[in-house]
Amino acid sequence: MTTSPSARATTSAASTDLRQEAFDLLRQLIICDTSNPPGRETSAAAIIEAYVDGSGLEYERVAKDPERTNLIVRLRGRGTGPSMGFLSHLDVIGVHRDEWSVHPFAAVVKDDHIWGRGAVDMKCQVAATTVALTALAREGFVPNGDLMLILTSDEEDGDRGVGAPHLVEAKPDLNPDFVAGEGSGERFDTPTGPVYMLDCGVKGSSSAKVTVIGTSGDASLIDVGRNAIDDLAVLIDRMRRFEPPTRIPDELQPMLAALAPDVDDPEEQVAAARAISPELDQIIGALTRTVYHPVILDAPGPDNVVPRRATALISAIVVPDMTKDEIEAEVREALGADIEYQLEVEEPNGGLISTPDSPLRDAIAAYLAEADPEATLVPGLAYGLSDCQVMRESYDSVAYGFLPFRYADPMLNLTTKHSADERIAIDDLEFQTRGAYFVAKYMGGVER
Ligand SMILES: [Zn+2]
């Protein structure tokens, strides 16, 4: 593929006030509560439809459950270039209202931020990409390949089969050649200058089910039976204390080289990269080992019996290419050999990686060169699963997780999404909107 005069891509739209429109649209989307469950994402899809209507964009609902639609918005191209989709989800994680200092669904504007559930994860991207594509349509821009918004439901929970899995089944011909979704995009300050990580793929997800079989007994006596919960508690504690070995995925080498260029020993390089800042400690730490957390406990009653059986489901997020046998060996090492237990390890899922060399990476790099010239874009990995993985699996798309945050403290993003007081700087929303406009225009100029 070649890029035609690259880029007449710019960051400023002719007639649209990108900042104001993204601000208004994001506030509407936050106020529309799509906590999943139950989701009810169709109400958010209707806001997008009303916004794009009449601009020249086509739109189409793809729904298994009419209250939980997916939405495809399209700027139709000439058919002479690759297609590209901006992938976002319309649902949000539910809230614990008492943890919030503001109402989570009022889209409060305070301290130059918009506050509310979904501000970061990821209604900002829904608003930014909708405004950008609409501006291009209003200007009469005709891309070589189709430019799309792929807006999914049920990403955060994913158990209902109504979101991305339904979309790819119902639309086998959607086939975006390139996809930009969530996963990375925070700006890290490093000794060698600011760095954005382009997430080209994701760690794998697995789990280990640990079951202890004890001996039941009368719970009103002091020393009867063998309580399965007691033994399971010891095993869970061992899991918590376990230091998994460092595993360095090949895909992370460019990032490590950028963060700690002068260190040769791989383990020392990881340590040096983690030592740069608390946020890099979190992210590089998560990307270079298995991350274990007990997530579900079960010991069926009745409540007057010392339980015979207790089970813990332990989530295991693993580096790409790690096998089931390797996970099992790691878990057994953590649990020790003196307590009897049964172990079932799930085959790891995920771990697909897109090539880091593509016009989409060039487009993102070109935007940053213009809008944040000190910074560099370095390929890396995402620590958590997203719908990007579904696009790689189903369409063989080159999919990157990249949603840029130029101004936010990365730690604030990491600690507030899926938690309380989620908020986005209005400057970041504008940065994302201009980025989406630039990238869409650039990709619309790529020829097949
Ligand atoms: Zn998300």
How does this structure look, described?
It is a single chain. This protein is an alpha+beta fold. It folds into 2 domains: 2-199 and 351-447, Aminopeptidase, CATH 3.40.630.10; 204-245 and 289-350, Alpha-Beta Plaits (2-Layer Sandwich), CATH 3.30.70. It is 33% helix and 23% strand. The chain contains 13 helices and 23 strands. It has helices at residues 18-31, 42-52, 123-138, 164-170, 228-241, 253-259, 266-274, 278-287, 324-335, 359-371, 388-395, 410-416, 426-444, and strands spanning 2-3, 35-36, 58-62, 70-75, 84-89, 92-93, 108-110, 113-115, 147-152, 178-181, 187-188, 195-202, 204-213, 217-218, 291-298, 305-306, 309-318, 342-345, 349-350, 376-382, 398-401, 423-425, 446-447. The strands form 7 sheets. A 6-stranded mixed beta sheet has the order 3-4-9-5-10-21, with helices on both faces. Strands 13, 15, 17, 18 and 19 form a 5-stranded antiparallel beta sheet that branches. Helix 7 (266-274) runs antiparallel to helix 8 (278-287). It is globular. The model is unreliable at 1-7 (pLDDT under 50). The structure holds zinc ion (ZN). Zinc ion binds next to loops.
Topology:
Elements: E1 2-3, H1 18-31, E2 35-36, H2 42-52, E3 58-62, E4 70-75, E5 84-89, E6 92-93, E7 108-110, E8 113-115, H3 123-138, E9 147-152, H4 164-170, E10 178-181, E11 187-188, E12 195-202, E13 204-213, E14 217-218, H5 228-241, H6 253-259, H7 266-274, H8 278-287, E15 291-298, E16 305-306, E17 309-318, H9 324-335, E18 342-345, E19 349-350, H10 359-371, E20 376-382, H11 388-395, E21 398-401, H12 410-416, E22 423-425, H13 426-444, E23 446-447
Parallel strand pairs: 2-6, 5-9, 5-10, 10-21, 12-20
Antiparallel strand pairs: 1-23, 3-4, 4-9, 7-8, 8-22, 11-12, 13-17, 13-18, 13-19, 14-16, 15-17
